[in-house]
Write a structure and sequence with these properties.
This protein is α+β, with helices and mostly antiparallel strands. The chain has 9 helices and 11 strands. The chain has an 8-stranded mixed beta sheet, sandwiched between helices. Strands 2-4-3 form a 3-stranded antiparallel beta sheet, with no helix packed on it.
């Protein structure tokens, strides 16, 4: 059966704005966040750019007046923590911003694009908040905002039927490994997401029984014992859709431990790591929430290119058009 979107192109553009406006308002209210402006590029020597899994190449260009190169941000995980200190935010308050990035090494498909757009958020916490119960409490607050978005979308667009579970299920990577020992990492996520509808998969970074982590994580921002992904079951494509990666950020102890585990102790001397080691940055929790993925999910779209304007091969555009999928 040929795919047919419930909304035409113009209706889709209107719906995208409705979803973004609604969700960021609910997110800000739930987590006590203030919107701020954020950089599109940073100087690499500051250590503020995120190297993600370690193999992705940042996009660089030279600035004539500065006579040096800068990098397009891959995420704002580190910049946000610095901004919280610089702007004078108080404990239990934080910021959110629109983050746009270019992932030149991404494998493109229905869910992955060269262009990344997400809400990046960060808030200040205390030492006693650095525990799993606080992480779970924050996840529940975000999920509550997602539930409110689902209600708003269903009311405005009754032709789009969509439900998500009342509660999100928490599963650690070790528990997931025990549940599905014969499956690959991604197959485990898919099986759990299909079973529960919405999961928070936590403690990503440290090795599992086979000596490899569930997924790659940078050593210098998330605490691997206090981080995770919000994953929803997406019936349109029959996949587990990760919509958010988040976590309580490293303190001095976890930073050194994780840099050593990943054999990246050479990063210790960069300004960002030095600021953590010398208590010049606040303790924080934060994450990113995919804007296009959220729009895709709640509008029942079959391809991320239906809700964002990116670049695709001529063959990809043609093949999707034959299926009734028209990319922006």
């Amino acid at each position: 059966m040929k795919y047919q979107s419930a909304l035409n192109l113009i209706e889709t553009e209107v719906a995208i704005k409705f979803i973004k406006d609604t969700f960021e308002k609910e997110l800000a209210k739930a987590l006590k966040l203030t919107r701020v402006s954020a950089p599109l590029f940073v100087q690499p020597e500051t250590g503020l750019n995120d190297n993600l899994n370690g193999y992705e190449r940042a996009v660089r260009f030279d600035v004539l007046t500065l006579k040096k190169e800068v990098e397009i941000v891959q995420s704002l995980a580190k910049w946000k923590r610095m901004a919280l200190a610089k702007y004078g935010f108080e404990i239990d308050t934080g910021l959110y911003t629109d983050m746009n990035a270019i992932r030149r090494d991404e494998d493109l498909d229905e869910l992955h694009s060269v262009y990344v757009d997400q809400w990046d958020w960060e808030k200040i916490i205390t030492e006693k908040d650095r525990k799993l119960s606080y992480l779970k409490k924050t996840v529940k607050s975000i999920y509550k905002a997602l539930k409110k978005l689902a209600t708003a979308v269903n009311k405005k667009y009754p032709q789009i039927t969509h439900t998500i579970p009342d509660e999100i299920t928490f599963i650690s990577t070790k528990e997931l490994e025990k549940m599905y020992p014969e499956l690959s990492r991604k197959e485990r996520e898919k099986a759990a997401a299909k079973k529960y509808g919405a999961i928070f998969l936590y403690q990503i970074g440290y090795p599992l029984k086979d000596g490899a982590p569930h997924d790659g994580r940078a050593a210098d921002y998330d605490d691997w014992k206090l981080n995770g992904d919000i994953i929803l079951w997406y019936d349109v494509l029959g996949i587990a859709m990760e919509i958010s990666s988040m976590g309580i950020r490293v303190d001095k102890v976890s930073l050194l431990k994780q840099l050593k585990a990943k054999k990246e102790t050479f990063k210790i001397d960069n300004p960002y790591c030095q600021d953590i080691l010398n208590d010049r940055l606040p303790l924080t929790i934060g994450g990113g929430i995919g804007q296009s993925r959220l729009c895709m999910f709640f509008l029942n779209k079959a391809h991320i290119g239906e809700v964002q304007s990116s670049v695709w091969s001529d063959e990809c555009i043609k093949q999707n058009a034959e299926k009734g999928i028209y990319l922006l």
